[in-house]
Prior knowledge:
The complex is a heterodimer.
Chain A: E1 39-44, H1 54-70, H2 74-81, E2 88-91, H3 104-116, E3 124-128, H4 131-137, H5 142-146, E4 151-154, H6 155-158, E5 165-167, E6 170-172, H7 176-179, E7 183-193, E8 197-198, H8 223-228, H9 231-234, E9 237-248, E10 260-269, H10 272-289, H11 303-310, E11 322-325
Parallel strand pairs in A: 1-11, 2-3, 2-7, 3-4, 7-9
Antiparallel strand pairs in A: 1-10, 5-6, 7-8, 9-10
Chain B: E1 6-7, E2 11-13, E3 19-21, E4 29-30, E5 41-44, E6 47-50, E7 55-56, E8 58-63, E9 77-82, H1 96-99, E10 109-110, H2 113-122, E11 127-130, H3 139-151, E12 155-160, H4 166-173, E13 178-182, H5 188-195, H6 199-212, E14 215-222, H7 230-244, E15 250-254, H8 269-281, E16 287-290, E17 300-301, E18 308-313, E19 316-320
Amino acid sequence: MILPVLPVLGCKPSEGHAGTRNGKDDPDAVVPDNSGGPRVALAADPGVVDSRNRVDGVKELMSRALGGAGDGEPGDFLQKLFHEDERIGIKVNTLAGRGMSTSVDVVEALVAELRAAGRGGRGIIVFDRLKQELVDVGYPSGQAARDRGYRVQGTDEAGYSRELYVAGRVGSLLSEVFLGVDALITVGVVKDHDLAGVGGCTKNLFGLIHNPNRYHDHNCDPYLADVLGLDEVKKRLRLAVADGLTAEWHGGPAYVRANTWSLGTIVASPDSLALDAVLADIIDAKRKEQGLPTLAEADRAPRWLDTAASRGLGVVDLDAIRRVEK
Amino acid sequence: MVPEPHEAKHWEKLADNKVRCLLCPRRCEVADRERGTCGVRENRGGEYRTLVWGRVCSENIDPIEKKPLFHYRPGTDAYSLAAPGCNIECLFCQNWEISQFRPEQIETWERSPADVASLCAERAIPTIALTYSEPVVWWEYGRDIAVAAKERGVGTVVVSNGYIEEQPLHEWCDVVSAIKIDFKAFTQRFYRDTCSGDLGPVLDTLGRIKDAGVWLELVMLVVPTLNDDEAEVRAMAKWINQRLGPDVPIHFTRFHPMYKLTNLEPTPVDTLEKCRDIALAEGLHFVYLGNVPRHPGENTYCPRSGEILIERAGYTILENRIVGGKCPCCDQSVPGVW
Lengths: 326, 338
């Protein structure tokens, strides 16, 4: 496809890459050890989902997942990824209501780990496109949220940038909430997606731009790779976490209760693409078990994963990913 | 806040609570909780809904020449309004701040079709223009406005990209008085790469409007290096003459850098003049220049006598010499709605 030469509006030079901190010139910069491939840690306990001690169980899973992703203590891992004086944004996914959105328990377990590691000194903001959707899923507002160590904000409250940000075929305004944070954690949901193939953590980033509906053609390829390649995203995105307590094998992004199962898993990785490649594998396995065609057979293979990987934005070869079961 | 949804027309149910939109050639298959490419129609539990019915994001009283419609009630006003959204994305869009946004992302206010019709009837504004963004994606609202307006003796004109399916187009043609189509180019490449659309459906639309007998005018925004090839313009003019006839006006308008296409200079006036010369040479009778105020190409000339029939300066009519729809010099009929 031939495109006219587009001006680059509002884009600033890249200042880093996913998984790095403040670029090569920063003497404190830490690049996760990806020799041997990025780590994708899965912490599982299916009993947690309906447990009376769900909150504690989720905290335990989060701790194991972060520890596995960093190959050590979760606090050490988070301290390597984030400076203490950064404002951290947690982009959740609340499109599908209570049934199939990033759960409050998972986010609060993550916030607790960040606080315990002394990170988020300039604040932790949990955000999505619409405040109402956050409230509908159960996120607290105002003082109730601050009492729990974070703020909750919808982009509809803060608005979008006046500048267009361009990468590849994507040209979009960006969430002002997102632009106001120093570092980003994408916390998606383990679910099938009607167009992208897999919901998860990278598709969750469509919630940063004002016009995601423009970029659903061709199973979101190359658009998801383009969004991941936006300089503003690259320099902020440090960590991906997937809420797989309840997962969905078919019918996403909406919540179809009959298509869900208690996976009881939290997945974490500094590489959003590697994490999503693992999620696609999990969803495909479940689809086969259910007698459904694979994502590729259903004509929605997440080709954008390969496109993004070919641009050096992450690793999607399952043989090259260190899948750590915790 | 996401506006209150309103029943959408022209869609069908699919398996797994999905729907297929039948409004435009994209025919989006939309899963539950998702929206079509336009961003203003949403699947709510297997039912398709429009989020922009009765929601206005821009309204003005404009001269009809601004649409531009030069052969439709010249010198009169049109109450012009838009709801958010568009089904294509032109990289040079002049109104991207309303066309490329979701309704909850920009300011909108309520204006019912009855209110719109009453406002025009009471102020003796003869025409309502559905314009600025893309009326195809707020089809239900626009059609309801046109129906209410017709009952009050007010005409409705549509300013569109023509990217619409046959049935909703026919239902438009039943209630509107004139349509202006942005004929972006005569190559699929331009439509695909610069507008994320397709040429074929637009050609179908033009033919259908002509066949329906609704007054039609065309605009081609001439973008340097992208759609200004002389052979392309000639082929386009030839097609217009053969399929639509020589009396359909075409306006070649000047591009200015905008939205995502800011690396090109404004269209040179001589390029527009060349386009006009080509179209006239191909036998088209009414060929205009746009966005070049006070250029002689803004005037309407009698195709037989060559006399100036309507003299314009920008959107202002300096003199209208048409009498009873005819040239005062040679009695030649001048097509249009006078």
